[in-house]
């Protein structure tokens, strides 16, 4: 849907220094330019290293921010996809038209504090809440990422963990989640313990594979630099010099959540990811995540970042589905 922008039409010309980067900036068959045109209701016309933007003042400013941000990423050696274009569009739209507040266009809508760099990729936030989340991961001892599926809670946490490990800021990464899935229990699954646990932890493995190669992941698992374990295995441990991530935290009990959080040791960074609306426990009211939100809300050095359907970075349809369920649930309350 095109945004409703002011009617006065203007024209802007962007000049890019490196023609070689423009095919990647414009997308195959100018698909990225088309996406920007559809979102902001402007017209983009390219000729050589020049790009003409025609439309309302706000549409031109927002389009310019998106294009310069993406071009800057290409200059730094990163690749961009249609998801990155959508993320840049979403971010500038939420920043209240920043270029209208400055006489100089910003080269990048995010800053170094918002970016996570790993061996395989550079990750930039695709929404305002993702930027807040990344900053919280860097600055807080314990961070709660709360919200629906597809908002990048676990992915960004794993990315930050890998970044910390590669930079030597921590000695190991510990990934955990409760073994609760729609009525199934570990004992019902075939195989040894690893084979029983793997289905529950596969999303964490997949995220690791996008940050470092699967070969490197396996080697670091063997060396103990990366540990993946069910939540029950955390009892009795003190976690020091580690980046610890608890995924699917809505399926913990209050006792389990307390047990996990009190494992915190020296130079420890903890991230708790979960969706309070997706509890698979027999009694959803006994979710340890909901209990922790209420109990720990006023403690310093613990950050709570709340995501909603506008932060969904999967297919746009996912955001609409989340919004529809939120609307239905709000009608019941």
In short:
By secondary structure, this protein is α/β, with parallel strands linked by helices. It contains 11 helices and 11 strands.
SS-based class: alpha/beta
What's the count of strands? 11
User: For the residues shown, what is the average pLDDT?
Assistant: 82
Order of helices and strands: EHHEEHHEEHEHEHHEEHEHEH
Strand order of the largest sheet: 8-7-9-10-6-11
Strand content range: 15-25%
Low-confidence stretches are 1-6, 96-108
**What Rg is obtained from the alpha carbons, in whole angstroms?**
22 Å
Largest sheet: 6 strands, parallel
Please, what is the oligomeric state?
single chain
Shape: globular
Total DSSP helices: 11
Helix content estimate: 40-55%
User: How far apart, in Å, are the first and last alpha carbons?
Assistant: 30 Å
Layout: helices, strands, pairs:
Layout: E1 9-15, H1 22-26, H2 31-40, E2 43-47, E3 50-56, H3 57-75, H4 82-94, E4 116-117, E5 122-123, H5 128-139, E6 142-146, H6 153-166, E7 172-177, H7 193-211, H8 214-223, E8 226-230, E9 242-246, H9 254-261, E10 268-274, H10 288-295, E11 302-306, H11 316-332
Parallel strand pairs: 6-10, 6-11, 7-8, 7-9, 9-10
Antiparallel strand pairs: 1-3, 2-3, 4-5
Helix pairs in contact: 2-4, 3-4, 5-6, 6-7, 9-10
Describe the model.
The chain is of the alpha/beta class. Helices cover 41% and strands 17% of the residues. The protein contains eleven helices and eleven strands. It has a six-stranded parallel sheet. Helix 9 links the parallel strand 9 and strand 10. The longest helix has 19 residues.
């Amino acid at each position: 849907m095109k945004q409703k922008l002011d009617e006065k039409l203007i024209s802007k010309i962007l000049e890019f220094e490196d023609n070689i980067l423009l095919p990647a900036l414009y997308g195959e068959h100018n698909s990225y330019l088309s996406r920007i045109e559809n979102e902001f209701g402007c017209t983009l016309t390219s000729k050589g290293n020049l790009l003409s933007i025609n439309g309302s003042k706000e549409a031109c400013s927002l389009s310019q921010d998106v294009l310069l941000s993406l071009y800057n990423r290409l200059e730094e050696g990163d690749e961009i996809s249609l998801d990155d274009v959508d993320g840049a569009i979403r971010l500038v739209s939420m920043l209240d038209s920043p270029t209208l507040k400055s006489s100089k266009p910003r080269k990048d809508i995010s800053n170094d504090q918002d970016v996570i760099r790993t061996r395989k990729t550079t990750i930039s936030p695709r929404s305002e809440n993702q930027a807040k989340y990344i900053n919280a991961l860097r600055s807080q001892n314990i961070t709660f990422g709360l919200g629906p599926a597809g908002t990048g809670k676990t992915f960004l946490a794993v990315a930050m963990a890998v970044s910390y490990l590669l930079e030597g800021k921590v000695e190991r990464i510990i990934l955990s989640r409760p073994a609760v899935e729609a009525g199934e229990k570990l004992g019902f699954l075939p195989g040894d313990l690893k084979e029983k646990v793997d289905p529950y932890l596969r999303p964490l493995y997949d995220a690791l594979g996008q940050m470092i190669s699967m070969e490197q992941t396996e080697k670091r698992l063997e060396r103990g630099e990366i540990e993946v374990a069910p939540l029950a295995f955390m009892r009795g441990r003190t976690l020091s010099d580690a980046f610890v991530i608890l995924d699917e935290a809505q399926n913990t009990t209050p006792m389990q959540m307390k047990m996990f959080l009190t494992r915190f040791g020296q130079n420890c960074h903890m991230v708790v990811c979960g969706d309070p609306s997706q509890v698979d426990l027999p009694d959803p009211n006994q979710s340890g995540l909901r209990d922790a939100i209420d109990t720990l809300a006023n403690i310093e050095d613990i950050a709570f970042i709340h995501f909603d359907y506008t932060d969904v970075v999967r297919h746009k349809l996912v955001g609409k589905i989340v919004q529809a369920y939120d609307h239905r649930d709000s009608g019941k309350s």
